[in-house]
Design a protein that fits this description.
The protein is of the alpha/beta class and 279 residues long. 35% of the residues lie in helices and 23% in strands. Bound molecules: adenosine-5'-triphosphate. This is ABC transporter ATP-binding protein.
Length: 279
């Protein structure tokens, strides 16, 4: 019997397996170099890092919108070769149809997923309720605030029930207070559904508020430099002492990876029950 090496065995159990992925754009920028990442079912993984470290490139490879120039990306052991209905991508822009009401936008998305006509309205209403927008069913997008539009976008994505949610800095354009509300909302929904989420952010606190794991990336070339499990209980609070210790640690690391020559002294990670190094 052939024994599997640990990495291979792990990759087989992973929901998403990224193995030795490189990506070089046509302008010769090496956006990803030897990236290896396993995401297990029900994990909320935050890809964190400074601008240009390849977070979006990696997310688009998971979405199947980009085929990496090297390595493999698989979901449930199937190679990802293009977009698929089991993976949905959310961006900063809510991208709602402006001529459709909130309810209309959700029903349209459900129709596109093949949900039978009779099931669309109750399902759409249920998800509008989950994002606290009951009463706004007949409202048009231009009558909504930025945060409300993002909640509609979240409801539309969740109603489609993808196995994997891929989020590219979805709350980055929102004001600070709305952003916190959206994080709390996403967390409460995640705690209920335990969807597999890969969430891109360059905000340390956002990563620690949301993630069960934080994967830190570095630029030039884009690569993974740290993989931390976050063992803080949920729902989390921005005032949590351990969360803030971890935030300080991650901020120092971020500075080191962004500007290696100007880095301050490395800090010891706040090891203990709050954090676990993944590899
Ligand atoms: N279509 C493209 N063509 C050429 N180079 C690209 C392209 N998209 C991204 N890049 C380059 O690849 C590198 C990684 O970009 P990417 O957008 O993945 O990083 P990121 O970490 O998501 O950055 P940000 O937080 O600024 O969005 C950067 O140097 C970027 O300039």
């Amino acid at each position: 019997m052939q024994l599997l090496r640990p990495t291979q065995a792990q990759a087989q159990r992973a929901k998403i397996a990224v193995a030795q992925v490189d990506h070089c754009y046509s302008n010769k920028v090496v956006a990803l170099k030897d990236v290896n990442l396993n995401v297990h079912s029900g994990e909320f993984v935050c890809l964190l890092g400074p601008s240009g470290c390849g977070k979006s490139t990696l997310l688009y490879a998971l979405a199947g919108q980009l085929v990496p120039t090297g390595g493999t990306v698989s979901i449930d052991d199937q190679r990802i070769r293009g977009p698929g209905p089991e993976r949905l991508l959310m961006f900063q822009e809510a991208a709602l149809f402006p001529w459709m009401t909130v309810l209309g936008n959700l029903k349209f998305a459900l129709a596109a997923r093949g949900v039978p006509r009779a099931a669309r309205t109750p399902r759409a209403l249920e998800f509008i309720r989950r994002v606290h927008l009951s009463g706004f069913e007949d409202t048009l997008p231009h009558q909504l605030s930025g945060g409300m539009k993002m909640r509609v976008s979240l409801a539309r994505t969740l109603a489609a029930d993808p196995a994997v949610l891929l989020m590219d800095e979805p709350f980055a354009a929102l004001d600070a207070q709305t952003r916190i509300h959206m994080q709390e909302l996403l967390q409460s929904i995640w705690m209920r559904t335990r969807k597999t989420v890969v969430f891109v952010t360059h905000d340390v606190h956002e990563a620690l508020m949301l993630g069960t794991r934080v994967v830190l990336m570095a630029p030039r070339p884009g690569r993974i430099v740290k993989d931390l499990e976050v063992h803080l209980p949920m729902p989390r609070s921005l005032e949590d002492r351990k969360l803030n210790e971890m935030a300080r640690y991650l901020r120092v690391l971020m500075r080191q990876v962004d500007e290696p020559s100007q880095a301050s002294e490395p800090m010891d990670p706040p090891l203990g029950e709050a954090v676990g190094l993944h590899h």
